[in-house]
């Protein structure tokens, strides 16, 4: 049974990005407030301002205004972008090097501070240093079976720790001192402060893309065996039942009370409250699905779209209208903290 939980709305049309240059592809995206950044395969970063508009009928649209674009001077794709808004810096991974650029003018920092030898990286959203003018970054190093922790300041970087892993890591998420890593054959939790590691469950990274995502304090969402979306805590236990995805999930995001997943042909929406699949949206050629401060964004090689959640009150009314009282109650109770008190009473 389906629920209309999200609507797919176009944000950046292909013409705005590439005009008639068909060879340009979107490699990565980052969104911070109204700022949307796009990294492309021809080594450019584009900066757009996203404006959300709501019509009198309640229809939401997005208008993207291009601010500027910047060529990074290499013949390599921009593979990852992460914003550190407290530093007004954008961390840009290109050709195994993380460069710091200014979020507004996209100019590299004058000191030339950079981190070399990075395959991929993640920011620590639950930092341990307590310094508001610093972000903590974990990189998977080009050195075999190695991850490194850095502190990144406005114009300099400092290595904090280097940790060796039992197998080659290929994906990482960070929470405090805990790293959740996808290795070649399994997922593990590793405390980089004590060096203690804990096996979670097996996984073959040769066969499909691992997903490791921090979704809350001390909790990660992982693509498990058999097409399961598994929740794991830093203690290595699961406090929630898994959701059933398709076998070939490319990306996943959390928009409470839903887990959203992307595969080759569809975006699927599962409820964390009863693990049921609630909505399926056809979406071909998607290769990115991420959530930024509660905003879920999907992208193909040529365009960017936003999944706009419908108000929970509306979803509950729709369920009641189709006589699905039990589901409506589960949603109302489970999402209570996201519904204004007076509306919840009704």
Automatic annotation (TrEMBL):
Keyword Amino-acid biosynthesis carried by entry: no
Subcellular location: Cytoplasm
GO biological process: autophagy; endosomal vesicle fusion; protein transport
Cellular component GO terms held in the UniProt record: cytoplasm; membrane
Keywords, alphabetical: Cytoplasm, Protein transport, Transport
Keyword Transport among record annotations: yes
Xref: InterPro entries: CNH_dom, Vam6/VPS39/TRAP1
PROSITE patterns noted in UniProt: CNH (PS50219)
One Pfam family matching this protein: CNH
Main location group: cytoplasm
CNH domain mapped to chain residues: 23-296
PANTHER family, alphabetized: CNH DOMAIN CONTAINING (PTHR12894), TRANSFORMING GROWTH FACTOR-BETA RECEPTOR-ASSOCIATED PROTEIN 1 (PTHR12894:SF27)
Name of the featured protein: TGFA1 protein
Organism: Pandion haliaetus (Osprey)
């Amino acid at each position: 049974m389906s629920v209309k939980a999200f609507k797919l709305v176009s944000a950046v049309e292909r013409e705005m990005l590439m005009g008639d240059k068909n060879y340009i592809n979107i490699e990565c995206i980052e969104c911070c407030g109204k700022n949307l950044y796009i990294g492309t395969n021809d080594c450019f970063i584009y900066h757009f301002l996203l404006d959300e508009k709501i019509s009198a009928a309640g229809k939401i649209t997005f208008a993207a205004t291009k601010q500027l674009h910047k060529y990074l001077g290499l013949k390599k794709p921009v593979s990852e972008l992460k914003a550190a808004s407290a530093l007004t810096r954008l961390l840009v991974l290109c050709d195994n090097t993380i460069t710091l650029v200014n979020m507004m003018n996209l100019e590299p920092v004058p000191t030339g501070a950079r981190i070399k030898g990075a395959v991929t990286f993640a920011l620590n959203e639950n930092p341990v240093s307590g310094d508001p003018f610093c972000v903590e970054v974990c990189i998977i190093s080009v050195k075999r079976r190695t991850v490194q922790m850095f502190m990144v300041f406005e114009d300099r970087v400092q290595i904090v720790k280097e940790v060796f892993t039992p197998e080659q890591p290929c994906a990482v998420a960070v929470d405090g001192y805990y790293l959740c890593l996808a290795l070649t054959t399994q997922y593990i939790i590793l405390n980089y402060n004590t060096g203690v590691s804990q096996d979670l469950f097996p996984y073959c990274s040769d066969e499909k893309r691992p997903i490791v995502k921090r979704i809350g304090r001390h909790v990660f969402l992982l693509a498990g065996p058999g097409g399961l979306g598994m929740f794991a805590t830093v203690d290595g236990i699961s406090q929630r039942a898994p959701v059933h995805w398709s076998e070939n999930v490319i990306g996943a995001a959390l928009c409470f009370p839903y887990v959203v997943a992307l595969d080759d042909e569809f975006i699927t929406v599962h409820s964390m409250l009863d693990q049921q699949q609630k909505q399926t949206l056809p979406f071909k050629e998607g290769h990115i699905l991420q959530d930024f401060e509660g905003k879920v964004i999907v992208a193909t090689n040529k365009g960017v779209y936003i999944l706009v959640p419908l108000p929970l009150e509306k979803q509950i009314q729709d369920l009641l209208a189709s006589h699905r009282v039990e589901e409506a109650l589960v949603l109302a109770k489970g999402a209570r903290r996201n519904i204004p008190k007076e509306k919840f009473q009704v």
